[in-house]
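User: Show me a protein chain along with its predicted structure.
Assistant: Here is one chain, sequence first, then structure tokens.
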Amino acid sequence: MIVMFVFLKAEAQPSTLVMADSLYQVGAYSKAIKMYEQLNSRSGLIFQKIANAYKAKGNLKKALINYKNAISTNPELL
């Protein structure tokens, strides 16, 4: 039973990311941000996606914070 739970949780991450990316693509930036933030992963890519969504909303302060987090997590994003 525990193995099945772990498997299901692992499957939820990619589907959440796909849904968040879809929301971003249709301009639902606030909803996309919420979904990106639900992901357990705080990779540079996720911070970058959050930053892009904040930038699209016009919230440059939060965009900058998340871009800085993205770069500090993964300097190769420069």
